[in-house]
Amino acid sequence: MAQYTRISGSVGLITLKNPPVNALSAVVRQGIVDSVERALGEPEVKCLVICGQSGKFCGGADIREFGKKMTGPPLIPVFHAIEAAAKPVVAAIEGIALGGGLELALGCHYRIAHSKAKLGLPEVTLGLLPAAAGSQRLPRLIGVPAALDLITTGRHVTAAEALQLGIVDQVTDHNTVDAAVKFALSVAGQSLDARRISTFPCPRLSNLDAVFEAAMQKVRQAARGAIAPVACVQAVRAAATLPYAQGLEREKELMATLFTSGQARALQYSFFAQRAVGRWSMPSGARWDTSKPKPIRKAAVIGLGTMGRGITVGLAQAGLSVVAVETQEKQLMEAKQAVSGMLERGAKKRGVSPPLGNISYSSNIKTVGDVDLVIEAVFEDMALKKEVFQQLSAVCRPGTFLCTNTSGLDIDDLASQTPNPELVVGMHFFAPAHVMKLLEVVYGPRSSPQAVATAMQLGKVIGKVSVAVGNCQGFVGNRMLSPYLSQANFLLEEGATPEFVDQVLEEFGFAMGAFRMSDLSGLDVGWRVRKAAGLVVPGKPARMRQGCRYSPLGDLLCEQGRFGQKTGSGWYQYDKPGSRVAKPDPWLHSFLEEYRARHGLVARRIDHQEVLERCLYSLINEGFRILEEGIAAGPEDIDVIYVLGYSWPRHRGGPMFYADMVGLTRVLERLEFYHQAHPDVPSLQPCNLLRKLVASGTPPIHRWREVIKKVHSQL
Ligand SMILES: CCCCCCC[C@H](O)CC(=O)SCCNC(=O)CCNC(=O)[C@H](O)C(C)(C)COP(=O)([O-])OP(=O)([O-])OC[C@H]1O[C@@H](n2cnc3c(N)ncnc32)[C@H](O)[C@@H]1OP(=O)([O-])[O-]
Question: Where is the 3-hydroxyacyl-CoA dehydrogenase C-terminal domain (predicted)?
Answer without folding.
Answer: 474-574, 611-697
